[in-house]
Design goal:
This protein is α/β, with parallel strands linked by helices. It is built from 3 helices and 8 strands. It is extended and about 85 Å long.
């Protein structure tokens, strides 16, 4: 699993302004910033870093996962922020049937993509709260089921005990009395 990626840029201020605007639709914001470096991410974790680089850089390709509607929003925001189109939002069936992506070149020539792999016809997963409620209900029901199962086992054992003729208990043999010992002094 990849934790974070760093992208080298020559014009840090321009790149930072571009990525702030372009990635905002997918929930990214600047989480950490230092002189010549900034970490962007969603949910407070910087997983995409841009860093000042003095020598000329080789362009790279970075792709962010999101939802279809946000792929469209990213493309519009990136173009408005100074990027150039490298592939309008749409299906890319040559990759797979549900690959929906948009591509832009950032101001330094990097190929930036936002993509959704989701099948739009697939049922949406239950909200986490509802799923958690079902799990809690199942945990509560499980002990009740165990109690019911134990009660059935006890009932069967009682029925079997009543059905068998009872054996007479053996008489306990009397123990001989202990002789009292004399104390010696």
């Amino acid at each position: 699993m990849i934790d974070h990626v760093s992208l080298r840029v020559q014009d840090f201020e321009r790149a930072l302004a571009f990525y702030r605007a372009a990635l905002e639709p997918i929930g990214y914001q600047v989480v950490m910033e230092f002189s010549g470096a900034a970490g962007l991410g969603a949910g407070g974790k910087p997983d995409f870093w841009i860093m000042q680089s003095e020598p000329p850089i080789n362009a790279t390709h970075v792709a962010f996962a999101s939802e279809r509607a946000l792929v469209d929003a990213f493309h519009a925001a990136a173009i408005a922020a100074g990027g150039s189109d490298n592939g309008a939002p749409g299906l890319r069936p040559e990759y797979h049937p549900h690959y929906y992506g948009a591509f832009i070149f950032d101001p330094e020539g990097n190929n930036v993509e936002v993509v959704s792999h989701a099948d739009p016809t697939a049922p949406k997963p239950a909200p986490a709260k509802a799923a958690a409620s079902r799990k809690a209900a199942a945990r509560k029901a499980a002990p009740k089921a165990k109690v019911k199962a134990k009660a059935k086992v006890k009932a069967k054992a009682k029925a079997k005990a009543k059905a068998k003729p009872k054996a007479k208990p053996a008489k306990a043999k009397a123990k001989p009395a202990k002789a009292k010992s004399k104390k010696r002094r």
